């Protein structure tokens, strides 16, 4: 038994509750009880205890769209790289990087990313992987890292025609094999999807091959209209927009994640809504790539399930929440925009998306839910209630304020110290591999 107590506990239920001197009692992998800290400690005197020291106890965060392989881009200099458009960013940076990733590079990028997730209180990650330097076994290596570090994760491989038919088929096969592997796993810690890059890098036959290799009940994880070039390519080649094209191939649906959806129009939003397809907003990446931002407020108005991700830009979900809140106010020229919508995306919609893949109840502190918990050292200097806690989180908490992270009932970080994880060694090995990758790129 484990108790995390002496904190302001945010349940994220419906209705949301804030327990002033709250605690959560963990029995194995599940939450057994939430309530008053003193009462739970009296009830379970022999339980291990983590003292929140008056900080905030909350459900572990969920990243609905990440790119683990991007870990080795930090600090990377590529000779002659000076992009002027989104396609130039893709080919000049990201595809150049992933073409030089070997299997152990993929593994170490996963180790580094999952460590960073733990330190930022992120307990579940939906990842979209690419390593065209070595495809076979790459998802299994990421899963190995996730298992070693104990992070809950959903994985897929980015199928694309960009490096030829042989590589494309190998990517589809990697997805298919990993889908079988994840289906046989009973831990509820590893899940799989069929990954696809974007419409403009996928032929008709490639999409059909992906469809043929995707069992019933498994969704697709695909980039949609991230750059306007995706829509223009689709209109030119197929005389239809991206969402129409994907819909005609039976790619959309309640198990599918459509990343970005920046340049979708009203008709496409209606199809997304009608098919109950999930959308993920990635604000910092969109701004960094200068591709625009999606009509999130309109999607929310239409009751589309839209969550929040980072697209590999960061592993700090609080950071992405802050940027999302600001950019929609700025673009819409409406200071009232996004106050409720962005917290809805991060704290509720991401949990709803998890519920479509994982059996455990994730993103809530209540009896029977998965024991995925983050503790922050944030101490409010104004009254904090269930009604205004989102404002406190937005302005007072960042990933680096997380002091403890529990995943599936296991303590992964306590008092900012990783438990059973040699972070120094992981980072040293990553630096060695990064230097070799960078050298290969610039040879």
Number of DSSP helices? 15
Kindly, what is the distance between the CA atoms of the first and last residues, rounded to a whole number of angstroms?
Answer: 55 Å
Q: What share of residues is helical?
A: 25-40%
Q: Tell me the radius of gyration.
A: 21 Å
Identify low-pLDDT runs.
none
Q: Count the strands?
A: 18
Major sheet: 9 strands, mixed
User: What amount of the residues lies in strands?
Assistant: 15-25%
Average pLDDT works out at 98
Shape: globular
Helical/strand content category: alpha/beta
Structural commentary:
There is one protein chain. With 443 residues, the chain is α/β, with parallel strands linked by helices. 40% of the residues lie in helices and 21% in strands. It is built from 15 helices and 18 strands. The chain has helices at 37-43, 86-98, 103-119, 138-149, 165-184, 204-212, 228-238, 242-248, 266-275, 283-288, 296-301, 317-332, 341-354, 389-396, 423-442, and strands at 2-10, 18-27, 30-36, 48-51, 56-59, 61-66, 122-127, 152-155, 190-192, 194-198, 220-224, 257-260, 278-281, 306-308, 373-376, 402-407, 410-414, 417-418. The strands form 3 sheets. Strands 1, 2, 3, 4, 5, 15, 16, 17 and 18 form a 9-stranded mixed beta sheet that branches. α3 runs parallel beside α4 and α3 (103-119) packs across α15 (423-442). The radius of gyration is 21 Å and the shape is globular. The mean pLDDT is 98.
